[in-house]
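Chapter summary example.
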Amino acid sequence: MGKILPLLLALIGLGAGIGGGFVLRPKASDTVVLNPCGSAAPADAQSAASGLDPQVNSTHVFVKLPNQFVIPVVEAGRVSALVILSLSLEVVAGGSEKVYAVEPRLRDAFLRVLFNHANTGGFRGAFTEAGNMEVLRRALLEAATSNLGGAVKNVLIVDILRQDNA
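The structure predicted for these 166 residues follows.
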């Protein structure tokens, strides 16, 4: 009996939480899209709400590379930090298949650039400074262009994290 009562209370609490979530969830008709810049056509309202330019969206697509890049920062012969990056590519419409077709070669080229950046001190100190990040973006774009040609328009650093070892 002593073990059944806590389990029973937990199940009752879980059921009440799920029931409350269903009862209190907003209805689809309660969602309002506001456009402070004036009225827009319904197709533009969704892209304006998401912050995307409809003209850019129709000619370019964004391809997120599925795995993160983990880069060690080596100081005095030991790993002093790890930098973790997520990258996306802006490519011409229809170019996503080309990205996935050469993904292993593209990841290798990106890793070479990222390791070189780490070895030259790019991830030390204020590594997110605008000038430092621009150098990295330019090098990544050159690597992407050498593998994809004119299909790639930009390399976007979506996430970046540095974890120092204690």
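To summarize the output: Residues 4-56 form one domain.
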